[in-house]
Amino acid sequence: MVSTLLGLNLYTYKKYKKTNEALSKTQGSEVNNKEDNKELEEIKLRLKAKEEELIEKEQILLSRDKLLNEKLEKILKTEKEKDEIQTELKSKEKLIQDKLESVAGMTMDEARKMLEEKVKDEMKSWISRKIKESEELIRMEAEERARQILIECMLDASTDYVAETTTTVITIEDENLKGKLIGKEGRNIRTFERLTGVDLIIDEIPNQVTISCFDPIRREVAALAIKKLLSDGRVHPGSIEETVEKVKKDILKEIKKTGEEILYEVGIDGLPGGIVMLLGRFKYRFSYGQNLVKHTLETVKIGERLATELKANTKVVKLACLLHDIGKVVPEEGKQHHHISAEIARKYFPNNELLANAIEAHHFDIEAKSIEAEIVRISDAISGARPGARRDNYEDYIKRIRALEDISNKQKGVKESFAIYAGREIRVIVKPEETTDEDLEIIAYNIAKEIEETQNYPGVIKVSVIREVRVTAEAK
């Protein structure tokens, strides 16, 4: 900028000199012209004033240029000093780092790596601890929720149970009526037993006739036929045959009615007539003292509740629970009932393998391929395997419980054992002076293994060995 101004002033000055010289040349020729001379003088004065002004500005610009140069030199000097200071700092920093590495016995990279590993280990330990805490909290909440769901399911599905029996007793008012049932030379009783397929026990108890047969439908036909015959008073082979046929037709109607009532109870409609008739036979079928209608209704209610809670296919679960024991009323030589039930499901619902698997897998010999199948398993177990639902022989029950305790008590280091929850769990107390914590798993394994090899039992038996800690093994 200063150079530009200087150039401009120089240009103006040169122009002024040329003008002055031109005026000087013309001065001689115009000496006589006074007015022109006067004007020239005025021009000279103005030009001189302008020249002085330009000289003054030039001096100012030169002064500014000098000041700027001084500032520039100062800035350059400051930057140089800054670079020198930075170089010195880097040198001192390197010296300090070398001394620190010498004292610590490791390089900076090694120290950084060691610190990173330490922080990583601490974070890993912290994360692991937090994960365990979260898992424990989730497990406790899940167990509590599961217990609540099961309790609610059992409360919703609680029913009464009727003991299984192979006999039916008919009370008669007049002992002489037994003679009519026997008939001349026993013709009536032989005809009756042949047509109904039952055994009549007449002479054991006064005023009572006992009907013995493993088939509850046959017993029901016989009982109704006897009541009708004695009520009518005409008892002979012809009336017996007529009455039995009529009762059998009535039983078929009752079976159909029962099947429809079951479907209404569970809220399912539109099933084929063959399924309805099979379901109706549940009324006369018992399993370990548990009536099949009661068990089925209970299983459906439990399964529906569990399916709703677990967001499963409720329709499939309900239908599978309804049909899971239908094979029990269709006896087929050499096949287990759950396989027969699955075949029936495939026959009536050919495009629903999810349903068939849920039915067939409920006794664990077939893989459960869906959550619906697992729910059917659980529902059946809750209804049928809990204490009181089914009645085993009392003596067999006592022997089974004692056998479980004997297996536990003979293990080395065991102080005592208790079979609880109707024999579904064994709690074993060990002698702390004769065992260590490491022995607990071995004792639990040995007990569970011997139970598996020597005992027959439904479901799962849990073995809990207690010292200062508790280790659990399950015999499946």
TrEMBL record:
Residues 292-385 form the HD domain. Belongs to the RNase Y family. It comes from Candidatus Dojkabacteria bacterium. One of its GO terms (molecular function) is RNA binding. Endoribonuclease that initiates mRNA decay. The keyword RNA-binding applies. This is Ribonuclease Y. Residues 33-102 form a coiled coil. Keywords: Coiled coil, Endonuclease, Hydrolase, Nuclease, RNA-binding. InterPro entries: HD/PDEase_dom, HD_domain, HDIG_dom, KH_dom, KH_dom-like_a/b, KH_dom_type_1, KH_dom_type_1_sf, Ribonuclease_Y. One of its GO terms (biological process) is mRNA catabolic process. PANTHER family: RIBONUCLEASE Y. GO terms for cellular component: plasma membrane. Its EC number is 3.1.-.-. The keyword Coiled coil applies.
